Each structure stands twice: as C-alpha cells, then as structure tokens.
Amino acid sequence: MLKLPENFIFGGATAAYQAEGAVDKDGKGRVAWDTFLEENYWYSAEPASDFYNRYPVDLKLAEEFGVNGIRISIAWSRIFPKGHGKVNKKGVEFYHNVIDEAHKRGVEPFITLHHFDTPEALHKNGDFLNRQNIEYFVEYAKFCFEEYGDKVNYWTTFNEIGPIGDGQYLAGKFPPGIKYDFSKVFQSHHNMMLAHAKTVKLFKQNNYPGEIGVVHALQTKYPYDKENPADVRAAELEDIIQNKFILDATYNGSYSQRTMDGVNHIFEANGGSLDLRDEDMKILNEAKDLNDFLGINHYMSDWMRAYDGETEIFHNSTGDEGTSAYRIKGVGEKVFDVDVPRTDWDWMIYPQGLYDQLIRVKEEYPNYKKIYITENGLGYKDEIKDGKVDDQPRIDYIKDYLTAVHKAIQDGVNVQGYFVWSLMDVFSWSNGYNKRYGLFYVDFDTQERTPKKSAYWYKELAESKEIK
Ligand code: NOJ
Asked: Which of 297, 315, 430 to mutate to test the pocket of ligand 1 (most atoms within 8 A of CB)?
C-alpha cells in the first residue's frame, strides 16, 4: 500500500487569467495577452471558467471533493491597472472575497503574484527585460503582502519563469511573439529571478507572516542515446535553457561555471549576450537560502539528440499528435520516436522523469527546504456523455506521477503536497478550450460544472491518502 504523509496537501491549481474571465470588468487593466489573443488566436480568455463570479461554486466543490488546497493567482492588473500607481479598490476587494471564501471552505489558498499576466502598460515597455519592471513588481508584491498578509500562509512570486522566457522569446507563442532570441531568453530568466530575489528579501526583512517560494517548471531532459557524448551534451544544454540556469539563480545565488559555459556555447551558436551585474549577483546570493519552498510544475520529459542545422520550433497548439518540432542550432533536437506514451499535444508521459527531477533538486540544491508539486496533470479532449465524464487516462496519469512522488519521499525528498492542474477546466494559453485538465468539467457555454470520474477518484485519494 502506498500512503502519502498525514499533512499532505491534495490541491487543485488555477491561474487568474485562465479561470476568471471578466478581463475588462470592474477596473481591471489590460494585459498583453488580451491583444495577443485578439491578433493571433481564434479564442479569448472571456469568459474562461467565470471564476470571477463562480469562485464560491468552485470552492464549494473543492471542499466536497476533499481538495484541501487551491493555487490561485492575483491578477496584477486588477490591483494596479497600469502596473503601478493608482490602486483599483474593486480588484483588491475581489481577492479578499476569494481568500475568505477559501478559508471558509477549509481550502488553503496558495497565492501566486504573477502567472504570465504582466499588465500591458509594462509589457509593452519590455516586460522584465526592462529593469524598471523589477521595481514595479516588488512594489506590487509589497502591496499584496500588506493587504492580504494576515490571511495568506503561502506566497509564490512567479509561476514558471522558464516557460515565460521560452514562450516570449524562443518559441514565440507568448506575447510579444519573438522567436529564437537567446539574449532575451536568458535576460528574462535572470531579471525575473532578480525580481524574485528582491521580493523574497523584502518579505523576510519586513517579517511578513507566512511562507514564500517560487514555482519552476522542471521538465526532465534525457539524451536520446546515452552512450553518445554529443546527445548527452544536447540534453545538458537544453536542461540549462529550461531548468538549470534558473535553479542556480534560485538556490546557488550564482551561475555555476558549467552553466555559464553552456550559456556561452549557446550564444556562440545562435548569437546573444547577457547583462549580469555585480549588484545583481549580490542580491541573488543574499536570497538563496530564504526560499521557504520550491513549487515544481512537471508535465513531461524530453529526449534530446545533437543537432547543428538551422533552428526550427513548431508549437502543436491544436492537439494533432506528431506535429511538434523543436530543434535548436548547436543545442539539440527533441526526438519523439522513443518508447514512451505522449499526449495529443506531444508531451511525453514519463513519471520516472518527475522522480529523477526531485532527486536532482535534493542532490544538486541541498538548501531547498521543501517542495510542493504545484502542477501536474493530463491535457485531454474530455467528452461529456449523459452527464458523465469518464477520464480514466487522467486517473492513470495522476496515479503514476503520485507513485513517483511517493518513491521520492521514501528516498528522502521533502515533498509536502500535490496540486493537480487544474481544479476545473480552464482556458489554455496557446491551445484554447479543447485541451482540458480539470477535475470538474466546465461547459463553457452554460458554465455548468460536472465532476469527472477523476474528481471522485481524487476525493477517495485525499480521504485515504492511499494511492490506489
Ligand atoms: C503550466 C502553466 O502554469 C499553466 O498556466 C498551464 O496552463 C499549464 N502549464 C498547462 O499547460
């Protein structure tokens, strides 16, 4: 029998822009995504899952189904419509109401301050490539700590710094849609880590109550042929882009020689440079032991083969399996013909990858303190038939990944909770609405919620703590 620890959090994750809708209601400022979706995609984030109005319904369902934690994010532009300056009282009030309701339902809120949604007024000035953004973020965070501090126990600065740099400046699937620009990728990673470090320092200096951490998306990278040194190097370089550079900043407070050698190699092949200042490194170093927890979002592993041709990335946004392409000059290419199942969006399902990543954090960054799996789940084209949703593949997915988490705990990794992405079906940034992840099915026309088979399974899991 596999049993998870007594105080384990069995959570559900959401994010403001993906759940709330009401993108222009009650004084909310625009975000870059509003314009980007209008210009490039066939859907919008309105009304998404209408969490803005229906949060009492979702939190009641959470309580009924044993979900004892919820990840929500605060939309920066609901609080400061322009990113700084004038405060929007209605936005402030909304999050008081959501947090109060969560506590009323016995669902612990884990609050993220930034989940991909920089206010447009700041985004158009360069987002985090513009160092002024760092200061505005810290001011916004300080406001939230003071406003909500007495009712929030868990704060997260950023959600997925890695995929932001990747989506905005490498794959070009996030606004401003720039491709293959490695200066911007690494500068965005670095500046956001700096904003994180400054915020954590402020949090601790001012003795705000509760805990603070950051959520990183850690995908595990393996060489296609582990006997081939060129493939081993490809996996390492891809790991540096997506994981290691950011983990070094978080827990070493500096970039290791090996990491920088990799970054410089990528710059030599693709062009690029970085602005790293002594004062930045001092701040990263001062914050490295102040993180109370690390949130890990994990969905996939990748197999990398050496590659020296021209860079080409194609993002499969439609769920047509086999349409993805990812190859970067002098780094490597993703290979899909390995004996591993994948989702319709070409995400390789490999629970061992989560185990390996957890062990890696423990071994390479022993000052990590504790971990929450802040996102994991299966993107699936769920169908509702006769009022029922049979999503057995999602149950199997979660069960297998939780088994890997259980094994990591046995092997000494301090994991304290798991949040399934997502609590209810939500809007998906670059996929729209046919990629569903929720425990609760959402009819996006009527906004009616229907618990899926996985919700009943999750309830049983949360009650017994046994993975079966
Ligand atoms: C990670 C992101 O945090 C979330 O916003 C996204 O929808 C999920 N991955 C699934 O792609």
From this structure: 297
Does the structure show a pLDDT above 90 at 169? yes
Q: Is residue 330 part of a domain?
A: no
Count of domains observed in the chain: 1
| Average pLDDT score, the chain | 97
From the alpha carbon of 429, which atom of ligand 1 is closest? 7
Report in angstroms the alpha-carbon separations of 4 from 139, 395, 403.
39, 17, 9
Q: What is the pLDDT of residues 255-285, one digit of tens each?
A: 999 999 999 999 999 999 999 999 999 999 9
Q: What is the mean pLDDT of residues 357-368?
A: 98
Q: Tell me if 402 is assigned to some domain.
A: yes
Which atom of ligand 1 is found nearest the CA of 116?
Answer: 5
Residues designated as active site: 375
Q: Is the minimum distance from the CB of 426 to ligand 1 under 6 angstroms?
A: no
Cα-Cα-Cα-Cα torsion 107, 111, 116, 118, nearest 10 degrees, comes to 140
Q: What is the pLDDT of residue 4?
A: 98
Distance 421 CA to ligand 1 centre (A): 8
Structure tokens at 164: 């932001």
- The model's pLDDT over 296-351, given as tens digits with 9 standing for 90+, comes to 999 999 999 999 999 999 988 889 988 999 999 999 999 999 999 999 999 999 99
Ligand 1 site, residue 376, Cβ cutoff 6 A: no
Q: Is residue 332 assigned to a domain?
A: no
In this predicted model, what pLDDT tens digit does every residue of 416-431 receive, in sequence order?
999 999 999 999 998 8
Q: Is 297 in the pocket of ligand 1 (CB under 6 A)?
A: yes
Contact criterion met (CB below 8 Å) for 274 and 263: yes
Ligand 1 center to 463 CA (angstroms): 26
Q: Which domain holds residue 216?
A: 2-301+350-467
As a whole number of Å, the end-to-end CA separation of the chain is 8
- CATH code, domain carrying 128: 3.20.20.80
Look at residue 345 and tell me if it is in a domain: no
225 contacts: CB under 8 Å, gap ≥ 6? 231, 305
